[in-house]
Amino acid sequence: MGSTRYAEGTALKYFCSDKCGSFARIENSRANCAAVLERSGSGAGRADGWVSETVAPGIDYAYSKIGNNLNGRVSRALLACDGRVRAQTGWY
Length: 92
What we know:
four-stranded antiparallel beta sheet; single chain; 9 strands; five-stranded antiparallel beta sheet
């Protein structure tokens, strides 16, 4: 499964497999932005954990570590720039 959202010219891509896990990737991004993956172990849609990776100098993309989506866990991807959420996917 995959989902893409756009904000400020940046693409937020969410990749998910119920067999292994999920991750977030941002492309065509500026500095001070991060790809964030939030997870919920209860499936209630409230984050109880997250991983994040910021855009490094000289490149325009970033991707998060893989989050485990096994045993009913759900996750979503966020694009955060300057400490604010600019785009997000739903919980999957």
